[in-house]
TrEMBL record:
Keywords: Methyltransferase, Transferase. It comes from Streptomyces sp. R35. One of its GO terms (molecular function) is S-adenosylmethionine-dependent methyltransferase activity. It is an enzyme of class 2 (transferase). The keyword Cell inner membrane does not apply. The keyword Acetylation does not apply. It comes from the Bacteria. Coiled coil: none annotated. Its EC number is 2.1.1.-. One of its GO terms (biological process) is methylation. InterPro entries: Methyltransf_11, SAM-dependent_MTases_sf. Residues 71-168 form the Methyltransferase type domain. This is Cyclopropane-fatty-acyl-phospholipid synthase family protein. The lineage of its organism: Bacteria, Bacillati, Actinomycetota, Actinomycetes, Kitasatosporales. Pathway: Lipid metabolism; Phospholipid metabolism.
Amino acid sequence: MTTQQPSATARHYRQDDLRRKIDEALDRLYPGHTTLTTDDLHGVDEFHTGGHAATRELAEHLELRAGLRVLDVGSGLGGPARHLAQHAGTDVTGVDLTEEYVDVARRRTDRVGLADRARFQQGDVTALPFPQASFDRAWMLHVGMNIEDKARLFTEISRVLTDNSLFIVYDVMLLSDPTLVSYPLPWASEPEHSFLARPEEYRSLLRKSGFDIVAEHDHRSQAVQSLRDAGDAHHQNSTPHNPAGGDTPPAPISVAMGTDASTKIAKALQNIEEGLLAPTEMICRLR
Ligand SMILES: C[S@@+](CC[C@H](N)C(=O)[O-])C[C@H]1O[C@@H](n2cnc3c(N)ncnc32)[C@H](O)[C@@H]1O
């Protein structure tokens, strides 16, 4: 991978003043709130199809118990990591390329009192800043679509895990001709910055990196429902404030998707409904 791609990716995700926009979205969701728990934040901090329902389901597949060290690969705004820290009592480390996301993740985690169990650092997941065998579990939620060199990604993840560790990949995977896929999408505005791969490619690269694939789940129906809900929420949130359209206040997670959030949500839904893309979970165990 060239050094150019990570900065194009970080530029795609970066928003101006994301922290303030999230606070405004929370004010709309919980008018007059003084304290918010981690459970109140689901609508604004889970940046993958299926949202919190998917996070909960995947977490169950990680066979967690208190004290395990978990790596969240591409941790975004920190919602999935906070869920693991809060509900499973694990010690979570999140790594993400986008500085602004790391900053939001840290501040939110601090606000809900989980900073001793969930920490975040800026970094590239294809060159993880940890010694070998540092973690007992790992998961990666909707990040591989941004990574061209998946062989290096999976080799890095296997390096930092202890033997027999579970690792869950939950990515949007390619089922058909890539030229038919419509953009912009939540992870890339143009095809040049999108690195979709087929399930066969994932399986092959994971096996070469030392993982056995123990189960696989197709999350398309959950994704379709969540994208419809996100589209409706975005529309409802925009309409009363500014019926004429234009500079509308965004709905919860679409805050992180920028001004063309509704198009990105609609295109993601369209590609899934047309059978071109499928959010897919692969549960892997390091040999
Ligand atoms: C669609 S978001 C998913 C975030 C989070 N996993 C979640 O589900 O809420 C993709 C994330 O991957 C991060 N990312 C993309 N390429 C990366 C890289 N090479 N290294 C680290 N993070 C990366 C982005 O900054 C972004 O936060």
